[in-house]
Known about the structure:
alpha+beta, Lysozyme, Membrane-bound Lytic Murein Transglycosylase D, Chain A, four-stranded antiparallel β-sheet, two-stranded antiparallel sheet, 19 helices, 12 strands, 9% strand, globular
Amino acid sequence: MQENTMKTTALAALILALAPTLSQAFETAAAEPLAGAAHGSAAPALLPLSPAATAKLAAPEANTALKTDKLKLNPDTSDWKEADVWGRIRSGYAIPDIDNQLVAKHITWYSTRPDYIARTTTRASRYIFHVVQELEKRGMPTELALLPFIESAFNPQAFSSANAAGMWQFVPATGRDFNLKQNMFKDERRGVLASTDAALTYLQRLYDMFGDWQLALAAYNWGEGSVQRAIKKNQALGKPTDFESLAELMPAETRNYVPKLQAVKNIIANPGQYGISLALVDNEPYFTAVDKTSDIDMTIAAQLAELSMDEFKALNPQFNRPVITGGEKTKILLPQENAAKFTSNLAKWGQALSTWTTHKITSARERIDTLASRFGTTPDVLRQANNIPQKTSLKAGSTILVPKTSASLNIDIASEITDNATMAFEADRPERKGRAGKGAKQEKGYKSSAQAPISLVKPRVPRGGGSRHPVRARH
C-alpha cells in the first residue's frame, strides 16, 4: 500500500511538472502548425526532457517547486488551489463579455488611476475572500465579487446622497425588503455578512427573473420594474432584448454599469496588460465571526482584540453607536489572528464591558446640557455618542445613550429598546410663555431614527418596482 501511494504521488508530481510544457507545446502547435500537418503527416513526438529538467523532477523538493505564486496545497484536502483570490475569481468568470466603446472608456479610466485601484484593492482584501466563497456556494459567477468596485470602491462606510449605504449600496426600502435591520444602534446595510448575503440573494433573484446576468446587473442598478418595461418596449417594436439592445433606453448610469464591471473584469484578468500591479490577497479567510453574549463598548472590543479602532470599524461598520448591543444574535468580525487574542484577553478582563445605557425622554423636550449634568458627563460627549446636532434639544419619546450609573452597571440594554428606539430633536430656543417660537417649525427636518439628522423625503421610486437607488454618477 505504501509503495503504491509513493508511486501515485510521484506520478502526480510528474504530471503537474509536465503540464506547463504540454500546454506550451499545444499552444505553439495551434498557433504555428507544422508544414507537414496540412498534408496529413503524423504529429511529431515530444522532445525529450533536458538533463536539468529530469534532475529537477527526480529531486525530493520537486513538489515544493510546483508551489508557484499561483498555486498552493490546501492542507485540509491535499488539493492544489489558487494561492491568490484574484486567480480564484478569474477561474470562475461566467458572465458573457461585452466589448464596446464604453468598456474601452472605463478601462482607460481605471488603468490610468493605479492609486485608485491600489486603494480599492487594499480595502477589498478584507472582504473579497468571503464574497467569493459565498458566490461559489451559490454557484454564481465569481466576477460578481468585483461589483463593489463599481458600487462603493469596497468601502462599507460609503453613504450616498440618495441614502444608499454600504459596500453593496442598499437604499433603506430595499434593505428592509432583504431583512437588513436599520435602527438607532445598527445599520446592517453596512454589515459585511448581512449585506453580502442580501446582495447575492437579490442578484440571484434578478437572474432567475431575467435569465441573463447582464440584465440582472442592469436591474440591480436600475430596478427590475424599469428593465421589464424596457424589455416590453423593445418586444413591441420587434427589437432584441439583450443588454446592449436595451442600453439606449437606460439612464446613463445603468448604460455604463455593465461596461464598468467588464472593464474591471478585464483588468483583473490581465493586470499587466494595463500596467496595473495587483497586491497579493491570500486565498484564505481574512476574518472570523466571534459570538458576543453581552453589551460591549467598541473601544473595549478593539482593545481586547488588540486592534486599532479604524481596523475594528472596517470589519464592523454596521454599528452606529459606541456600544454594541444585541446579545447572542450579534457577532463581531475580527481578523483570524486577533480572534484568539480577543478570547484570551476577554477571559482576563475582570471589568465592566460596557459603560453605556439608555435613557428615554419623558418631558416635552430636554436640553442636552441638562441631561449631561444629570449623568455626570459633558454635552459634547452626549452629542457625539448619539449623533445629536449642535443647538438642538431632544423631544419627548427620544431614547439616547447615557453613561451607566452604579445601579445599571451590570444591566444590558434590552433588545426591545435596541429594535424600537427612536430619536427626535428640535432647534434650541429660549423658554417662552405662550406661543411657540420659530424653532417648532423646524422639527420635521431634525427627526431621525438612525445616524445623522436627515430630511424626511419620499423615495424617488416606489418599493419593489423601481430603482434600488436613484441614478447617480459613480466616478
